[in-house]
Design a protein that fits this description.
The complex is a heterodimer of chains A (about 80) and B (about 200).
Chain A: H1 8-18, H2 26-37, H3 39-57, H4 65-79
Helix pairs in contact in A: 1-3, 2-3
Chain B: H1 6-16, H2 20-42, H3 45-62, H4 72-87, H5 136-148, H6 151-162, H7 167-174, H8 178-200
Helix pairs in contact in B: 1-2, 2-3, 2-4, 3-4, 4-7, 5-8, 6-8, 7-8
The chains are: A mainly alpha (about 80), B mainly alpha (about 200).
């Protein structure tokens, strides 16, 4: 029986769900084959990776000094 | 207790028994984690500071209830997530915009050239800048997009893609099923990608 051809819509949905997972299953091999001939899905995958990268690298905040001091004085009060 | 460094397990145990210095050391140990997570979810320093305070007051009150069956950080993330969910603004959520199942530009029957190759109809994105050289406009775009994402989805996105938690741990933190975590993450990524597309397309 001929295997149903994978559609871009299905690829996009799968990529969104499994972006950071390994791509070694049978389904993933079919996706990779589709991606190699589909500039739209390739562009979509790249844009998803960039979306995650932008949020991951945008700001790595540390507790500001005044917030740290306030927290510890509030907790000291709560314990007394 | 599970998968906690030995020093942390001892600290947690001493704090549970009422050792104030141990509790204070525990707060020092985890306050940056709580602040960072709260900041990424709230996108606001003041709200993150408020969440940090509320979280550790809850930890202080409930530490004796922590049974050590889950990791301490799982329990901590859960308290922060609950605080964020309680603080969210009650608003009408544009859920329709989260039901994107076909991004703009995708066609069931893609356009092809004379040789049968698919013609690209989805614009490629430009290269991503480093955090230090992001323009003010891009920063505003990132903030606006994530603030439009409903809190239930935002928390999953932050835990999975920013904090790097697995689907299993995210499910434990939020007491959701793994398929529910995956579904929320898929929608969150699709939504954020669509929101950034206008700015990022080359």
């Amino acid at each position: 029986m001929k295997r149903k051809q994978i559609k871009c819509k299905e690829v996009a949905s799968y990529l969104c769900e499994n972006l950071t997972e390994g791509m070694n299953s049978a389904k993933c091999r079919a996706l990779k084959k589709h991606l190699s001939g589909c500039p739209n899905c390739t562009a979509y995958l790249d844009s998803l990776r960039k979306t995650v990268y932008l949020y991951k690298t945008y700001q790595d905040p540390r507790t500001p000094g005044k917030t740290h001091r306030k927290l510890h004085s509030v907790l000291k009060l709560a314990r007394s | 207790m599970t998968a906690e460094p030995r020093e942390d397990r001892q600290l947690i145990e001493r704090a549970r028994k009422g050792d104030e210095r141990a509790f204070s050391a525990l707060v020092h140990q985890y306050e940056d984690l709580v602040f960072r997570f709260a900041f990424h979810v709230c996108r606001d320093e003041e709200k993150a500071a408020e969440t940090l305070q509320d979280t550790f007051i809850n930890v202080f009150r409930k530490l004796k209830q922590f049974d050590g069956k889950s990791k301490f950080t799982t329990w901590l993330y859960r308290i922060v997530a609950n605080n964020c969910l309680m603080k969210r603004r009650r608003r009408k959520i544009d859920l329709a915009s989260l039901s994107i199942d076909q991004p703009e530009g995708f066609r069931d029957d893609p356009l092809r050239d004379e040789e049968g190759a698919v013609i690209q109809t989805i614009p490629s994105w430009k290269e991503t800048p480093l955090d230090s050289v992001m323009s003010g406009e891009l920063r505003e775009t990132l903030d606006r997009a994530i603030q439009r994402l409903p809190m239930e989805y935002r928390i999953v996105f932050v835990l999975r893609d920013i904090e790097g938690k697995s689907a299993e741990e995210t499910a434990k933190i939020l007491r959701l099923s793994i398929p529910a975590v995956k579904s929320r993450l898929r929608r969150a990524r699709m939504f954020l990608r669509e929101q950034l597309h206008g700015y990022m397309k080359a």
